[in-house]
Specification:
This protein is an alpha+beta fold and about 80 residues long. The protein has one domain: SH3 type barrels (Roll), CATH 2.30.30.110. About 25% of the residues lie in helices and about 30% in strands. It is globular and about 35 Å long.
Length: about 80
């Protein structure tokens, strides 16, 4: 999941991402569960603690976008995990 801003994405050769997994885990305040089809094909979880910058060439392609409610949940998750 790309979490860097559009401006940073245009200006830099890298993007900042939060890892996504489809492995089921117990509910955790460190992850955001994405229901099947919203936007991933399988139920997935964004891991707010696993954030890295990668070269844009490593991206596989566009999967989808979060809706407004998911975006706000992701913002809260990142604020809590990273004490922002």
């Amino acid at each position: 999941m790309v979490i860097s801003s559009d401006g940073a994405n245009r200006a830099l050769p890298v993007v900042t991402i939060a890892a996504i997994t489809t492995k089921k885990r117990a509910s955790s305040p460190l992850q955001l569960v994405l229901p099947r089809g919203r936007p991933c094909a399988q139920e997935s979880a964004v891991l707010g603690f696993h954030v890295v910058s990668i070269d844009k060439g490593r991206l596989d392609g566009f999967v989808g976008s979060l809706d407004a409610e998911q975006m706000e949940s992701l913002r809260r998750l990142l604020r809590n995990v990273w004490a922002l």
